[in-house]
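Bumping with the actual sequence this time:
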Amino acid sequence: MAEGEAAGDAGLGPAPAPAQEGAELAAVIGATVPTGFEQTAADEVQEKLGSASRISRDRGKIYFEVPARSLPQVHRLRSVDNLFVVVQEFKDYQFNENKEDALKDLEDLVKKLPWTDPLKVWELNNSLKKKKTKRKKHNLQSPASREKLNDGGEEGGADQNNTNDQEDCAQNPVAVEPTGGQNTEKPQGVTSRNGVEEEEDNKQSDVKVEVQASSESGTKAGDSQTGEGDAKVLKFRVTCNRAGDKHSFTSNEAARDFGGAVQEHFQWKADMTNFDVEVLLNIHSNEVVVGIALTEESLHRRNITHFGPTTLRSTLAYGMLRLCDPQPTDIIVDPMCGTGAIPIEGAAEWPYCYHIAGDNSPQAVKRAANNICSLLRKNESKDSTALGVPLDIIQWDICNLPLRTGSVDIVVTDMPFGKRIGSKKKNWDLYPACLMEMGRICTPGTGRAVLLTQDKKCFAKALSRVGHIWRRAQTVWVNVGGLHAAVYLLRRTWERAEERRSFW
């Protein structure tokens, strides 16, 4: 039987000790990252925060410990989607086979968890968000900012309704549990140890559920005050993410019962939409993590205001760029830029490189230009002396780029999957032509390319046809909106590429 104490012993050892009087508050931070780029995120955390990370067995998550005062730097990480502070983690939680007993164990667990320091971290995080909001309001109210916004051209996110289906679990407010009791949703593949992608079977379940913990669903926002002069009663919801086939309960049931115990323990009010605290219950086979969310919306939305049909996450764009190790003065080209997620991320994080973006679609070029304008306004609101970004956008033909032979150091692009844009049939001609033209503009011997595609069969065939100019150095298996895709790192050989014509 999985008693609360036994579960605690099966975890990472004792729960984190509360901060001593006068001691610095520390936090174990959990972060969701693009599947496949966990190591990239861990490297960024080590580089920017000086903290070692542990990659979870549940793909797409990392954990690291930092002083609470480092929270602003944590929010500035480029590779993470969502952040949460870990209340406690259990590496080998033994669930009871009986459903009622298993759910009762989860309820009992609430009273035994070390909530004090994580809630202090949550409060500190909230105070940082309030300061940021105040700064934003101040900037918008200043005459200079109003003038910039009025002169900014087309803006307003007219294409925001076209957001892709790459929403992160904590941002998806509803998920349905199939009547059979097990989830058939398969949002991502798994990679075996030898790097071969495998399809998940029906045993894998990964449900995102936010369940209200009591019948107080009708509580209005104004009811959170118990009365004038009284302390505010916090509102909360519980989000349960579950994966595995050996659980006797559903995600809805776990969230409902765990949430009920949280409400009873803290006397908070349950509210599905207008909540103050989001408690996370992540269950992956026998690994259980309880946390408190630190982000309201995914950090991957930081750069894009005008979305297209296949807009790439900024966090995935960062992972792709980091894979090719840009150096100062490198010229980086995205020949199929879409809404500009990759070059905009590149210009923000690698300002000492020069970024060139292009697309054959005038609509895509317009969206990318609007996103660049948004980035400029954002930079100007932070620093009135900002000089702009090292980035240009052009409309062009991918197979006939107006760039000198051997003039480019890096090519990074999201190639057409042949689903929402183009077709699989067209890719058989497009991919070889693209690889040849990329090979022509890249510097022999030192040039590299990082290419994302879901059409792996077509890409492998195309690469075999241009093997004299491109060599595959690394493959990263990723999940893009539920599609099993691959990011390929290619290195340019010394072989001379065929020149179509002279451009200069």
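The tokens above came from a reply further down the thread. Residues 1-14, 142-229 have pLDDT under 50 and may be disordered.
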